[in-house]
Amino acid sequence: xxxxxxxxxxxxxxxxxxxxSACGGGKGIEKAGDSTTAAAAPESSEAAGTxxxxxxxxxxxxxxxxxxxxxxxxxxxxxxSLDPAHSYDWDAEMVLHSVYQSMVTVDxxxxxxxxxxxxxxxTISDDGLTYVFTLNEGVKFTTGKEMKAEDVAYCLNRVKGxxxxxxxxxxxxxxxxxxxxxxxxxxxxxxxxxxxxILTRGSMAIYDSEVAAANGGTCDESDxxxxxxxxxxxxxxxxxxxxxxxxxxxxxxxKYADAQKQGSIDKVIIRNIPDASTQQMEIEAGxxxxxxxxxxxxxxxxxGKENLQTVTSKTFDIFFLMLNASxxxxxxxxxxxxxEALKYAIDYxxxxxLAGNGAFTPAGIIPSGFLGYAGESTxxxxxxxxxxxxxxxxxxxxFTFNCGVIPDMAPDGVSFxxxxxxxxxxxxxxxxxxxxxxxxxxxxxxxxRDGTEQAVIGQWGPDYYDSNNQLAFLPGNTVxxxxxxxxxxxxxxxxxxxxxAQETDDTVRExxxxxxxxxxxxxxxxxxxxxxxGRTWAVNSRVQNIVPSAAFVLEFADxxxxx
Length: 563
Fold this sequence. Notes:
By secondary structure, this protein is an alpha+beta fold.
């Protein structure tokens, strides 16, 4: 574990207190105290000593390095920042979960169970609008500062205030205040039964608010702390600490000795290996210990290989073809009858067989394992029906459209390009030409999020374990707008979604989610959900006690390495 070099902050205490009070929404701090920054290397000893002593230290350090345990993970990184307030990528969760604590967490074997983390207990008011959390005492950040309620309030208010990708998750939060040294009060502007699930996410991470305020953290859109947090070791209280991060390349995490939950492995390295074939080659060569993005065909080839094991787990990830509903960008796809035709043109069994790992087609946007899951789809391919519907829509000879695809990405081992090529082939049989537009991740995400793509091959990994998360697909909501689907296009559906978002009775909620999916089907919503993925990893046999999680991918703290 690298030591931390402390330096006294030379910032006016009054300015610091004002900044923290503004972001924390409650008690500020009386003085700036000692701010900490992480050194690139451990502190040196007070004196060099004799040559012999120096030699002994060098030898001891070498022996310690040799005995340290380490694993290397190959992954196709989608994130460009590990600032919690800006992080909204599924694979960033495994990093943020390991280096920070959130107020609450989930059981990795049953994500429906909310468990204590930084907060040891909480109460919810009868009207569902006020949550009071009591924090554990004595929890230390890697900076040495004890976690207090002011840190929690600061971090949550920063998520809301900087307007990064995850800020909308706290839209129903009216205020977060430190109402005691170890008490945090969260007040809502609308009932949100998903709040506890939301607070488990990596974007709700808690870190040293003094360091943040001293380095550009303002909790509004002028905030510049992202640059600092991406360039310096992390300052959380999780099992690990980020000691180096190069965007798009590598993350290095080292065990945090004072964590509440101790990790067993000393160092975890995550390397960006976007190409699945390269991951396969490196796991076989022993250059990496985990290959997270192999296809089912690749993992099948590795079964029984010496020094390798495969690990299969569930996901809540759904893959879909998005068809823009706006006339400006969707063109022919804006016609609901066209979207219905394309739905019957796709060979769902064939595409799931290609994906492997137990993939299947859910009946709607609610994945298996969530409240309101409608079972597997009953829609089967019908080429003649698809052609008839196209003729009704005015396209008896078909048409051509463009579909954005990230060519070298295979989340859960499901290749976007493989999906695109299969769907392209299926649609060709009904006279529709789908041009595959291969795009870099940054280009794809920008145009997809702006709602300017005619169509895309997409994947949705829920941000938190609650069906409310899937309401993003409804008209007027986040994904709905990306698909050009505005609230006025389906007002009754939008209204039902708004009701479901605030319903607290699970029996009522379940029926609402079932009704929502039925209405989406009847409205020929601008998405064709074609599979829910399973997941299989290739792992070096020396790695033991592997605990996959559909919520945060992998629990690093539980991993062990055979000596």
